[in-house]
Amino acid sequence: MTTLTSPRPAPRPQRAVLRLHRPTLLVWMVLVIVVSGLLLCVGGPLTDTAVIDPEKIKRYKDWNTYTTIAVLAVPFLVAAWSGATLTSRELENGTAQLAWTQSISPARWLAAKLALPAVLVTVGSGLLVALHHWAWSTGQGRIDTAKQWHNIGTYSANGTTIVALSLAGLAAGALLGLLTRRSLTSLAGAVCVPALLWGAVTLATPYLWPTVTEVSSLKLDVAGGSGMSVSEGLLTSTGARIADPHCGSSTYKECQAVYDKLDAVSYFNDYHPYSHYWPLQLTATAIVLAVTAALTVAAFQLLKRRTGSTHSRKESAV
Fold first, then answer.
1. Distance from C-alpha of 9 to C-alpha of 169, rounded to nearest angstrom
2. Within this chain, do residues 141 and 85 fall inside the same structural domain, yes or no?
3. Which of 83, 146, 158, 318 could make an SS bond with 187 (beta carbons 3.0 to 4.6 A apart)?
4. Is 21 found in the same domain as 149?
5. Are residues 306 and 231 in the same domain?
6. Residue 100 domain-assigned (yes or no)
7. What are the backbone angles phi and psi of residue 94, rounded to the nearest 5°?
8. H or E segment at 232?
């Protein structure tokens, strides 16, 4: 009598991805834990010590800078890993093609490649951003020389744009891996994507939300209004806007003579107050996520175009 045995079920794609990238997962966890610990230290003991002892402010500033750089580096690290290993390595050594001839379709293979890393990147980078924002907020109003909210590095590391840039780097690495099938080439190209997106978002940020205009007296040394300045200058008696010669207060006779010659009557300043922080952040995040979605769709379309006909012929033959 013969005994029939059912074929051994193929491993789930998610488990295969987890097993394949286990060393990277451990490195990611260590990175998140270490940077999180440093952020807790910056927002806790280092801030408290700097408030009590002004001589310790330099140490607080140094570690605040180090942790900010670490958070800002996350999208580039994710893009580099994604470009080097997520899809390119398996296409380069042929294991992806082997998987497609078994029980995993190319689309399911790519979905599994993206899904688990996307969750881990979102959770990890989101935690770092939240802790950075907390660490920064603990110094506000307590340390006079602490970074302002609109400082480029602080603004980026404090908000959700970093999470979106990390996901964009992940999607870009997967797409370029499919496109080039070369680890080094896709790594280099993937790292450029968050860099270009970050640069574009930084330049566009002041214009993503309507500004507030403050008109102030020429008796001040500079225009009033505290925040992210977009445009400032002088207003004439007719309401025209002209450039500020940066002379100073009109209480100085020389400056009053300059303003009289220009027919200037007040300063103006178009700026974003701190209350605009989250509208600006969330708008920028939405834009980057839209780009991320486009990169993801492009990756699936490219994979379908390259493997669709072959895979469909295989299925019809079976």
1. 33
2. yes
3. 83
4. yes
5. no
6. yes
7. 90, 0
8. strand 228-236
Q: What pairs with residue 109 in β-bridges? A: none
Q: Which of 157, 229, 228, 170 is nearest to 198 (CA)?
A: 157
Which structural domain, as residue segments, surrounds residue 250? 212-273
Tell me whether residue 191 is in a domain. Answer: yes
State how many domains the chain has. 2
Instruction: Tell me the per-residue pLDDT of 88-120, one tens digit each, with 9 for 90 and over.
Output: 888 888 777 777 777 788 888 899 889 999 999
Q: At 218, give phi and psi (nearest 5°).
A: -75, -5
One domain for residues 75 and 88: yes
The pTM assigned to this predicted structure is 0.88
Q: What is the DSSP letter of 252?
A: S
Of the candidates 195, 25, 34, 14, the residue with the CA atom closest to the CA atom of residue 121 = 25
What separation in angstroms does the CA of 279 have from each of 14, 123, 273? 36, 22, 11
In a domain, 189, yes or no: yes
Dist CA 102 CA 108 (whole Å): 12
Same domain, 59 and 71: yes
Give me the residues paired with residue 228 across strands: 272
CA-to-CA dists, residue 120 to 166, 202, 288, 317, angstroms: 11, 26, 18, 38
Token pair 């794609």: residue: 13
Q: Distances from the Cα of 19 to the Cαs of 9, 25, 113, in angstroms?
A: 17, 10, 12
